[in-house]
Amino acid sequence: MIEIVILYPARTGARFDHHYYETKHIPMALELLGPAVRKVTVTRGVAPAPPWPAPAFAAICRLVCESVEAYETALRPHMARLQADLAAYSDVEPVVMIGEVTLERVSEGGAGG
Known about the structure:
This protein has helices spanning 18-33, 68-75, 79-84, 86-89; strands spanning 2-9, 37-44, 57-65, 95-100. With 113 residues, it is of the alpha+beta class. It has a 4-stranded antiparallel beta sheet. It has one domain: Alpha-Beta Plaits, CATH 3.30.70.100.
């Protein structure tokens, strides 16, 4: 399995429309990429009270796919459309990392459970 991680850096004065991203862009991407994407998560950066630092990223999207080849095959015909939609929700250039998933663990009850 591979994971495509798309990071949107948090910058002073930058724009990131979470509502649009979560309700328009991601559903469009999932429809276009089809079964190549097995799982998606979107994480919003939050600014908790001190001593916690401000978030480094406005948002992080993770797409889990079977292989780089499967992702590339699904993405290639739609890449221009997906990239063009960036202007609708952000003025920040995303940083993309493709990595191999080497460990995944789900807790069976959380802390104290």
